[in-house]
Specification:
The protein is mainly alpha-helical. The protein has 18 helices and five strands. The chain is globular and about 85 Å long.
C-alpha cells in the first residue's frame, strides 16, 4: 500500500503526465454528460419501459454497452463512436487489399492525412445510414409512445442531423484525447462506455442473486463465485493479450575500423494474439447483417435472424466460434509478413540459429506463427462465446457481457495500453515503474489505431 501511494505521488509530480490525465478526465466527463441528453422530440419521462426492453435484448444490449447507455436513453450520442470504428476498419482493410490505397498510405504524413480525411467522409455516410435505422427503431413500440406529437413532422430530419453531429463530436473528443490526453482517444471512449455499465450490471446481478430472503446465503455464495470467475477470466485475457513466443535471433559481428561491433543475441517477439480484437469485431459485424432486416421487431423475428440475435443459442456460438477462428488466421496473414521480416533480418546481418537466411527463415517464422495462432484463435473464440455460457448459467443479461466478448477484450487492452504509457513517463523521469516484476505490455499496435 505504501508503494502504491508513492507511485501515485510520482505520477502526480510529473507535470506533463498530470496535465494529460486531467485533460483526459475532463473530455471523458464531457462525453458522459452528452450521453444523458435526450434527443429533441422524445419525452425522457416516458422511455423508462423502452430502456428495459433494449437492455434485455442481446443485440441491442451490445450496442448499448459500447455507447455507454446512450443507445437505450435515446441520447444525442446514441450511435457513439461505432460508425467511426466501422469506417476506420473498412479503410484499414482497403490499405491492405487495394494497391491504390497502399500507395497513398506510403506517401508519409500527407498520405496519412488523406486516409484520415476519407475516413471522416465515410463516417458521415455510415452514421447517416445507421441513424435512419435507429429512427425506425425509435418509431417502434416503447419509444414511439414517448415521442412528442407536435414534433413528429421534424423528428426524422432533426434526428439524422443531430445523431450525425453527435458521432462527429465524439470522434473529435477522441482525437483531442489522442493529441492532448493519455492513451488512444477512441479506445478510451469505448472503454468508458463499457465501464459505465459495470456498476449497474453488478448491482442488478447482486439483487437477482440475494433478492430472495430465504436464499440470501446461497445467493451470496453464487455471487461471490461469479466475481472470482470474472477475475480469473480477466487474468487469462491479460495472458492472451501479452503472450509472446520469443524466437532467438543472432547478429553477426562486423569489423568497423579496428573494432568488432555487433554480435548481439536478441529475441524476435511473436504475439500469440497478433490480430487483437479485430476477428471478434468482424464476426459480430457479419452476424449482425441478417438482423438488419428485422431491426425494429427482433423479439418476433424467426429463423436465422432469431439465432443471430440470441448470444446464448448453441448454433450462434458454433457459427461465431468458427468465424472468429477463421478471421484470426485471415487478419494475421494480412498484417504479418514473414518474408519482409526475413529480409529485414538479412539486411541487418541477423539470423535464426540453425535456419538459413532468406526463404527458409521466412518459412520458419511463418510456421511458428501458424502454430501459436491456432491456440490463440481458439482461446479468442472461447472468450467471445463466454457471455452466452454465462447467460445460460443464470447470469443476468447485462452482467454476462463482462464475462468475455468484445467488451472485456477492449477493456483489458485499453487499460494495459494506458498503464504502459504511464509507466513510460515514470521511467523517463527515473522513477520506478508500476510493476516490480517487469514492464507493462500493451496490445498489438495493428488495431490500436482503430479501437
Amino acid at each position: 500500500m505504501k508503494k502504491l501511494g508513492q507511485t501515485l505521488k510520482n505520477i502526480w509530480s510529473i507535470e506533463e503526465l498530470r496535465s494529460k490525465i486531467l485533460v483526459t478526465l475532463g473530455l471523458v466527463l464531457v462525453y458522459r454528460f452528452g450521453t444523458h441528453i435526450v434527443l429533441p422530440g422524445i419525452d425522457p419521462n416516458l422511455i423508462e419501459q423502452a430502456q428495459k426492453s433494449a437492455s434485455s435484448n442481446g443485440l441491442l444490449s451490445l450496442f448499448d454497452t459500447f455507447a455507454g447507455g446512450a443507445f437505450s436513453q435515446a441520447s444525442i450520442l446514441a450511435l457513439g463512436i461505432m460508425p467511426y470504428i466501422s469506417a476506420s476498419i473498412f479503410m484499414q482493410l482497403m490499405t491492405i487489399l487495394v494497391p491504390q490505397f497502399q500507395k497513398v498510405q506510403k506517401e508519409g504524413e500527407s498520405g496519412r492525412k488523406k486516409i484520415n480525411q476519407w475516413t471522416r467522409y465515410l463516417t458521415v455516410l455510415v452514421t447517416m445510414f445507421q441513424a435512419g435505422a435507429y429512427i425506425a427503431y425509435l418509431n417502434g413500440p416503447g419509444y414511439g409512445e414517448a415521442q412528442i406529437a407536435a414534433y413528429k413532422d421534424y423528428f426524422f430530419l432533426s434526428t439524422i442531423i443531430i445523431l450525425t453531429a453527435g458521432t462527429l463530436f465524439v470522434m473529435w473528443l477522441g482525437e483531442r484525447i489522442q493529441d492532448k490526453g493519455l492513451g488512444n482517444g477512441t479506445s478510451i471512449i469505448i472503454m468508458v462506455g463499457i465501464l459505465a455499465r459495470l456498476p449497474q450490471s453488478i448491482a442488478q446481478e447482486f439483487a437477482a442473486k440475494v433478492g430472495a430472503k430465504d436464499a440470501y446465503v446461497k445467493g451470496m455464495v453464487i455471487f461471490g463465485f461469479e466475481i472470482v470467475v470474472l477475475i480469473l477470466i480477466i487474468m487469462a485475457l491479460i495472458i492472451l493479450v501479452q503472450g509472446v513466443r520469443q524466437v532467438q535471433v543472432n547478429y553477426a559481428k562486423q569489423i568497423v575500423g579496428n573494432r568488432a561491433v555487433g554480435g548481439a543475441r536478441q529475441f524476435l517477439p511473436l504475439k500469440v494474439n497478433m490480430a487483437g480484437v479485430m476477428p471478434i469485431i468482424f464476426a459480430q459485424a457479419i452476424m449482425f447483417l441478417p438482423t438488419l432486416f428485422s431491426f425494429t421487431n427482433l423479439d418476433s423475428a424467426q429463423g436465422i435472424v432469431k439465432i443471430f440475435s440470441n448470444h446464448s443459442n448453441p448454433w450462434y456460438m458454433l457459427i461465431y466460434s468458427i468465424m472468429v477462428i477463421g478471421f484470426t488466421f485471415l487478419y494475421t496473414a494480412l498484417i504479418f509478413n514473414p518474408k519482409q521480416m526475413s529480409e529485414d533480418l538479412k539486411r541487418n546481418n541477423g539470423f535464426i540459429p540453425g535456419v538459413k537466411p532468406g526463404q527458409p527463415t521466412a518459412d520458419y517464422i511463418g510456421t511458428v506463427m501458424d502454430r501459436i495462432t491456432l491456440p490463440g484463435a481458439v482461446f479468442l473464440a472461447l472468450i467471445g462465446i463466454l457471455p452466452g455460457f454465462a447467460e445460460m448459467l443464470g447470469v443476468t443479461q447485462g452482467f454476462s457481457t463482462f464475462f468475455g466478448g468484445t467488451s472485456l477484450l477492449i477493456m483489458v487492452g485499453v487499460i494495459l495500453d494506458t498503464l504502459q504509457q504511464i509507466e513510460t513517463h515514470l521511467l523517463m523521469q527515473q522513477y520506478d515503474g508500476l510493476m516490480s516484476s517487469g514492464r507493462v505490455q500493451g496490445r498489438q499496435a495493428a488495431y490500436g489505431a482503430t479501437i
